């Protein structure tokens, strides 16, 4: 059952009933025992606090006692929503039962709370559009209900923050940022910490994606303080800020520190709507270790978790962007290009599909196409998300270097160094082949750079993989292996190569392995890099 504002009692909608003598929606219930929830909890306690304890106290009573009390049913619904083991289906059953009982005898905030819990429950099931609509109903009801002003403001704040969380997961980043800012500034000191921590975590995620790492770090720090003070370890409300904490460490190249956070992410996200984000951050950490196949497995788990969602929005885009990045590294250009073309492009290029396309073109040696791919990013200027713009500058520099335009390459690379050093970012420099990065770093060391940029150059020079020597070229490639190598460089799959050469896929796989062995490579990307270093790509 779903109760809209038009079916709510008059003390919630703020209107008088058309017929004061009209019968109630249900028979008047008899006196209820006061020891089911004694003292009677307010809406915050029903929705967020001590839910396991409330469930135990309620279920100790005979069924007929608590099953006719809407407040008890709402508390039970909340206990299956905001618990260490969330169960949205059971929560929905109790919400439906509570809605069927609520009438003019019940406090108005109970109706608003029902709308809030129902919106949160829809979110946990991946029904983000329905959840967003429910937050609008709850906000309007909280604004118009005949309840004390402080309670009305608190309920409005909770509804607005809930809408911001829904908009975040839908990928409507600017709207989400405005709603979260509004809701968190409207909340009062009485608002429960779990709601505050979840809102701060989603705000941190927005700031991270929109390229404002300092603001993201500040929000993560505040969320961590509130979570620690309120003993929320493992609570689903902590998942967003922990995800961002791990992503910040990965962006800075501190993989071990990020890995130490991943387990906490999973403890909080498991079984909730944030579980796909848990898979995403795990895949990101594995990719940072060059464990490409494990990263792809984690992304497959993420995709499986999103299948039941009506509109995965942001989470689907995060999945596609990371999977495309891993496939590019593996030399799987065709599948990567398909993923890139379906990525949603927001107005600020927060995920920036163009940078992925440019990476793909640089990996294939087409530097002109790489520049064309990121030309819209350059044209966007300051409206481009700052973080992904560092990637754009690095790729712009690599492409110009490949075309022999040393001045343009130096200008873009210096700009990338400056922004990356100020924002504690390392990952953008891994988006170009190591041999190109070594060249860019060597040229940068010759220039008079600001101290922070020069320090970053030295750090990156130590981290970039060492140049492969010609002595590691195990043995010359046969004529057939040279043909297979050319197909590998072109991004063709084993099945495509076998079709063109009219041999079995197993034969091609054997020849590909032989090419890898002779080049001293372990995957497509390394094979292409090694072939270029040996002058075999002409």
UniProtKB/TrEMBL annotation:
**Which Gene3D superfamilies has this protein been placed in?**
Tetratricopeptide repeat domain, Winged helix-like DNA-binding domain superfamily/Winged helix DNA-binding domain
Region span, Disordered? 1-40
InterPro entries of this UniProt entry?
Sig_transdc_resp-reg_C-effctor, TPR-like_helical_dom_sf, Tscrpt_reg_LuxR_C, WH-like_DNA-bd_sf
Give the record's keywords alphabetically: DNA-binding, Transcription, Transcription regulation
| SMART domains cross-referenced by the UniProt entry | HTH_LUXR
Q: Which CDD domains match?
A: LuxR_C_like
Residues of the HTH luxR-type domain: 470-535
Q: Which Pfam families match?
A: GerE
Q: Which domain of life is it from?
A: Bacteria
> PANTHER family, per this entry?
DNA-BINDING TRANSCRIPTIONAL ACTIVATOR DEVR_DOSR
The protein in question is named LuxR C-terminal-related transcriptional regulator
Q: What is the lineage of its organism?
A: Bacteria, Pseudomonadati, Pseudomonadota, Gammaproteobacteria, Lysobacterales
